[in-house]
Specification:
The complex is a heterodimer.
Chain A (H helix, E strand, L loop, with lengths): L3 H4 L72 H26 L13 H10 L5 E3 L5 H6 L4 H9 L32 H14 L6 E6 L6 H12 L4 E7 L2 E2 L2 E2 L21 E5 L3 H16 L5 E6 L20 H4 L5 H11 L5 H24 L24 H10 L2
Parallel strand pairs in A: 1-2, 2-3, 3-7, 6-7
Antiparallel strand pairs in A: 4-5
Helix pairs in contact in A: 2-3, 2-10, 2-11, 3-8, 5-11, 6-7
Chain B lengths: L1 E2 L2 H15 L3 E5 L15 H5 L4 E3 L4 H14 L2 E5 L10 H8 L2 H4 L9 E6 L15 H4 L5 E3 L4 H13 L4 E6 L25 E2 L12 E4 L4 E5 L2 H13 L3 E5 L2 E3 L3 H11 L2 E8 L4 H13 L8 E5 L9 H4 L3 H12 L2
Parallel strand pairs in B: 2-3, 2-4, 4-5, 5-7, 6-7, 10-11, 10-13, 13-14
Antiparallel strand pairs in B: 1-8, 6-12, 9-11
């Protein structure tokens, strides 16, 4: 033990509170980001040991280069028809978000969450997964539903909490649920779905099924125990699951350093659990598709789970309830060095000679039109703003399979 | 018919359900190869293989979460939380997920999960192996809460819980795993084999959820109890000479209100006995319900005999535990007016 005299010359302890590089009024500063070249990351065999691919947790898998060309071993070589379809889906997601954001501002519903800047993630992952694989999403993966062809009008009915709402007005807007489309009911308690996806995958393996599961959380939620339960159980039981961390830099107003993103990457968390851990450019449709397809193939081959960090940027507010200009520079989204996923896909298709400005403009219009038509149908079913909600009688149903006496009595007491 | 302890009866229920339904599987800390720290899953891994009965990491949150995922897939998991005192890391998954998933998905996804967990004191477990947290679960919409007090009921109720399509929290009174307990800790334990309730059919049978049992018929005062306290209450009635009717609730949610009301209307008096702390304990709900349903039949204030509002203290186990002396005092008080 050292004596008090020896300690005198040391500085006092100080508590570090992480701070982002720029705040409102500052010039956005991404100078600390290390962005490897597209095509630089190696693509290991799916059967390779996780130890042989540890560098991928600190690297960044990128396929699209600055000129919009697909390069390197991760190029999934999708045909132009698929690429155009994917671009249309991303445009549809963006048009949907814009329309629903306005609907909230118009008082038609209470709440909305956009995924602007992150469209490539859910859409590419829906393309890479099989239609029957089970998704345990967080709240910014509306692209999964749209890419799987879930009716826009049903999403809107849910957002409006109207009489046609598939979940009967019980859930906050955007907390969709549809078993038919392999989309687990979204929870507002962040992270709970991550280890649930592992449990579903364990069940699939237990039954000798061929379906796999995928879960999504954000960078902020990796701080929850659920993230670690998921990694641990996925590793221990070699569950056929893809664990996706969407690092969009911001958890409401807290930058990713508050979740521990400055000390190491979120992908690197998986290494301690012996999971293959990939860090991927989330604004690069082709890279997201390729990494997800790799992980899916690995899971289906009974080789277990993969952790994927999808490196992206939340270009708008967390939800309709916050103003991002209060906690980050207003022009920060425009300065994000990895660009916009839709623009990059457009550039790629144009580089291939498979797309042009006129077609792009027409596709945008078509997406807006499709959303407008769905919205007309949904608003005709009613909106929360007008008070056209499901029958209040249904409030006491589905708490249990059968309505117990005490709930029957409470319903009678309410007079319905 | 065989003579079984409560542990053997619970093991038999799991055995029956694993044999009948391939969608049933069971897991928990030390629940696989070793058969559980209380031996409830003993032999099941050997009989059904490691994918039907297996060990889990020390992760109640992970256990509950994976069970929810399995339930969403269509399995019927039975998980063991080693001590009820350890359940809190899994509480979010129970309360926000298992309990709510049917409602929030409008019936598309369900959580047909049974959570088995030993609870209660009387074994010198100190504050982390003795708790009775049932009221933290009875308060939650979407959960059923079950507590047996005999080997026969334990097996029949556990089978009902596993077959139930809603999540069931199944509290096992560990003090009476091997024999009923009068509360006289200084007297030798009587094994279950000496009691008729230990006669348990070897095959499949059920005891329905939501139905109480009359553990002792009587005319003077109604005692509402469950788990270990059923036996303590019966002993108190015998020793005091007060002709108490002891109702074993067996299921707290949904509660068998009819049996309670019929008894209190007959006796005109009611004492509630539980081991959990008093404030906001399930006894508060029972007292409110009895008052709402039976006010004009009551001859005396409703009494509560409970654990104290302190942590469960190791050295003061028998000061904390509401033993026969405290129950008798409660009965006498109810009979004063």
């Amino acid at each position: 033990m050292s004596s008090p005299e020896l300690k005198k010359n040391r500085p006092s302890l100080s508590l570090r509170i992480p701070q982002p590089k720029s705040r409102p009024g500052d010039t956005p500063d991404f100078s600390n980001l290390i962005i490897p070249d597209a095509g630089a990351a190696p693509r290991p065999d799916i059967a390779a040991h996780p130890r042989e691919m540890m560098n991928l947790a600190w690297s960044l898998i990128r396929v699209l280069d600055s000129k919009g060309r697909a390069v390197g071993p991760w190029d999934p070589r999708l045909n132009p028809e698929t690429l155009r379809r994917a671009l249309n889906h991303m445009l549809l997601v963006r048009a949907f978000d814009d329309r629903m954001y306005r609907a909230q501002r118009q008082g038609k519903t209470s709440f909305y969450m956009k995924c602007t800047g992150e469209e490539a993630i859910a859409v590419a992952q829906a393309y890479a997964l099989d239609r029957n694989d089970m998704c345990f999403p967080s709240y910014r993966q509306q692209g999964l539903l749209i890419a799987r062809g879930y009716p826009l009008v049903d999403m809107m009915n849910q957002i409006y909490s109207n009489a046609q709402d598939p979940v009967k007005g019980r859930q906050l807007p955007i907390m969709y649920s549809t078993k038919e489309y392999g989309f687990f009911s979204i929870s507002g308690n962040l992270g709970t779905q991550f280890p649930q996806a592992v449990g579903w995958a364990m069940a699939s393996a237990y039954k000798g099924d061929d379906r796999i599961a995928a879960g999504w959380i954000g960078d902020g939620t990796t701080a929850e125990g659920d993230f670690h339960y998921a990694c641990n159980f996925a590793s221990v039981y070699r569950a056929p699951v893809i664990l996706n961390v969407v690092n969009n830099q911001w958890a409401i107003s807290s930058f990713q350093g508050i979740a521990g993103g400055e000390e190491s990457t979120f992908a690197a968390r998986g290494i301690g659990y012996g999971l293959p851990s990939l860090r991927v450019d989330g604004n690069d449709f082709l890279a997201v598709y390729a990494a997800t397809a790799w992980a899916a193939e690995r899971a289906r081959a009974n080789l277990g789970a993969t952790l994927i960090e999808l490196y992206s940027y939340r270009a708008e507010g967390h939800s309709t309830s916050d103003d991002p200009a209060r906690y980050r520079p207003a022009d920060e989204p425009r300065c994000w060095p990895l660009g916009d996923p839709i623009e990059r896909m457009k550039q790629h298709l144009m580089a291939l000679g498979e797309w042009d400005e006129a077609r792009h403009e027409a596709a945008q219009k078509e997406a807006v039109e499709q959303v407008r038509a769905a919205n007309a149908e949904a608003t005709a079913n009613g909106t929360l703003g007008e008070g056209k909600i499901p029958s209040v009688k249904t409030m006491f149903e589905d708490v249990y399979k059968d309505v117990p006496w005490h709930l029957r009595r409470q319903r009678q007491q309410m007079g319905v | 018919m065989a003579t079984m302890t409560m542990i053997q009866a619970l093991n038999s229920a799991l055995d029956v359900m694993l044999a009948r339904d391939e969608n049933v599987l069971t897991f928990g800390e030390d629940a696989g190869y070793f058969g559980g720290v209380f031996r409830v899953t003993d032999g099941l891994q050997k009989k059904y293989g490691p994918t039907r009965c297996f060990d889990s990491p020390i992760s109640e949150g992970g256990i509950m979460a994976t069970a929810v995922g399995m339930g969403a897939y269509g399995l019927r998991p039975v998980v063991e939380i080693q001590f009820a005192d350890y359940i809190y890391p899994g509480y979010d998954q129970i309360v926000s997920e298992a309990a709510k998933i049917r409602y929030r998905s409008a019936g598309e996804f369900t959580a047909p999960i049974t959570v088995r967990t030993p609870y209660g004191g009387g074994i010198f477990g100190g504050q982390t192996h003795s708790q009775s947290p049932e009221s933290l679960f009875t308060h939650i919409a979407g959960l059923k809460t079950v507590i047996p007090s005999t080997p026969y009921d334990a097996k029949g109720l556990l089978i009902s819980a596993i077959e139930d399509d809603d999540p069931v929290i199944f509290f096992e009174p560990k003090r009476i795993y091997n024999g009923p307990f009068s509360g006289h800790h200084d007297q030798p334990v009587q094994p279950w084999s000496k009691f008729a309730e230990a006669d348990v059919p070897e095959g499949h049978y059920t005891v329905p959820l939501g139905k109480a049992a009359i553990a002792r018929e009587g005319n003077d005062v109604t005692v509402l109890a469950y788990g270990t306290m059923v036996h303590v209450s019966k002993a108190a009635a015998e020793e005091s000479g007060i002709d108490a009717e002891v109702i074993d609730l067996r299921t707290l949610v949904p509660l068998d209100i009819e049996t309670i009301v019929a008894s209190v209307e007959k006796t005109g008096r009611c004492v509630i006995v539980h081991e959990a702390p008093r404030t906001s304990g399930f006894g508060a709900e029972l007292a409110a319900l009895v008052q709402e349903h039976c006010f004009f039949h009551l001859e005396a204030p409703i009494g509560r005999v409970t654990g104290w509002d302190t942590p469960y203290p190791h050295a003061f186990e028998w000061h904390y535990f509401p033993g026969p002396a405290r129950v008798i005092e409660g009965l006498r008080k109810a009979m004063e007016r």
